[in-house]
Design brief:
By secondary structure, this protein is α/β, with parallel strands linked by helices. The protein is 37% helix and 7% strand. It has 14 helices and seven strands. The strands form two sheets. Strands 1-2-3-7-6 form a five-stranded parallel β-sheet, sandwiched between helices. Strands 4-5 form a two-stranded antiparallel sheet. The radius of gyration is 23 Å and the shape is globular. 42% of the residues are buried.
Amino acid sequence: MATAFSAAKFGTQPFPFGTTSSRSHQKPLFDPLKTSACSFLGSTRKLRLTPASKLNQVNSHRRSPVVAVSDVVKEKKTKSASNLLITKEECLELYEDMVLGRAFEDMCAQMYYRGKMFGFVHLYNGQEAVSTGFIKLLKKEDSVVSTYRDHVHALSKGVSARAVMSELFGKTTGCCRGQGGSMHMFSKEHNLLGGFAFIGEGIPVATGAAFTSKYRREALKEADCDHVTLAFFGDGTCNNGQFFECLNMATLWKLPIVFVVENNLWAIGMSHLRATSDPQIYKKGPAFGMPGIHVDGMDVLKVREVAKTAIERARRGEGPTLVECETYRFRGHSLADPDELRDPAEKAHYADRDPITALKKYIIENKLASEADLKAIDKKIEEVVEDAVEFADESPHPLRSQLLENVFADPKGFGIGPDGRYRCEDPKFTEGTAQV
């Protein structure tokens, strides 16, 4: 049993991924590394900021051993719930959240092809273990910053299915009143700081949110402000300059943030192996003085164990962590993508490792719940999603006067005329003849 996130050394035990891209049959994504007794994957380098001996002395009373969930899952004989690393209630919460994400996205595909949604819609099918494994560990005050693939992150953070579906329909009852759409989910109430359409765009926002938490705690003396920020992004983003700049700042200022790489192996149609000189993204963490961890992103229990340690570490004020979750999306990049570039064998390999199916198997084998219990959850989620569609479809479209709201900072500027009315309300506005 090893101490998680040891300051001196991180284990290098690889997960058994053997899948290769059709463009690189000779080279697996992660080459075999030497094994150790540690449950976690990562760099063997020391953290630069604090000597290992000193850090161990200071934090030894706050650390507890963590057993790799993978070791538990591998055991064939059924254990009693008291010996498991997760309770029945926790397991069912994870299952329900993952089923909600999958069912919601499947419904989005139907609605998109029926003409209820417009623009680009990027679905999350296959990656549910990452969102659920991380976000369900957060407090309401903690922040999440997402990407354009943000529907399920919003659901996991507590935004209602009604509000997310209405936003996708462009209705006033959406979480952004219909002005954000698929790629720009936002909820102040739930501290969902946005989906972002451009890659890397959300990472500086997440870094700023983490700085806010640290500033409130240390400068404003708000002792109870231990809020943590999660920054989600994909493998393609990890070659972007903002990624490196923010890793540097996060370590420099010891910010309470976890950088979560959802490595689904493809940046639109570009294989991760072809675009990155070193495909092992987690190694970039130690280069900036933070732990770098690789985890099986198709196993929600493994993700949850790593997430728990990283989040608790950030909450204690010990700084950032980079976690690479190797996962896979079951659909094309977006619903406009015919998905013809990926090897069918590769897609079949990951489909066989469906994270929801794996969790369901774990629950049944360990007698945490019955088939009937899980079917009841499936039925409940089906009704929630159907209700969300009906609600969104019946909700009103935004008024034309809403078009220029939240655009112009100066209320007397271009958006509002001298009479106090929105210029877009002028009948001639769209003709380009309105006096400006």
